[in-house]
Automatic annotation (TrEMBL):
Top-level taxonomic group: Bacteria
Pfam families per UniProt: ClpS
Presence of keyword Ribonucleoprotein: no
Record keyword Cytoplasm present: no
Organism: Mangrovimonas spongiae
Protein name: ATP-dependent Clp protease adaptor ClpS
Residues in Adaptor protein ClpS core domain copies: 19-83
Gene3D superfamilies attached to this UniProt entry: 3.30.1390.10
Coiled coil residues, start to end: none
GO molecular function, one term: peptidase activity
Classification via SUPFAM superfamilies: ClpS-like
Amino acid sequence: MSTQEKTLEEVLLDEAVKKENEIVLYNDDVNTFDHVIDTLIYACDHTPEQAEQCSIIVHYKGKCTVKTGAFNDLKPRCSMLLEAGLSAEII
């Protein structure tokens, strides 16, 4: 096996191991679009357009990934969503 092939295998293995966590937001019958949009802007640093698109996806599909990243970054963001009365979890 050549050095180039071995290096390539190691890089591919590192990429497969580094899976990012996701905050998934779920639909409910309680919160308004405006509340969801405002909360996504505040908690997830979304632009108004991003937040509106996510709220529409959640409404029609039942759920939407609203933020990806390291668990330590997502945990306080997910807590803010939950404190605002939204249904979300980190997966």
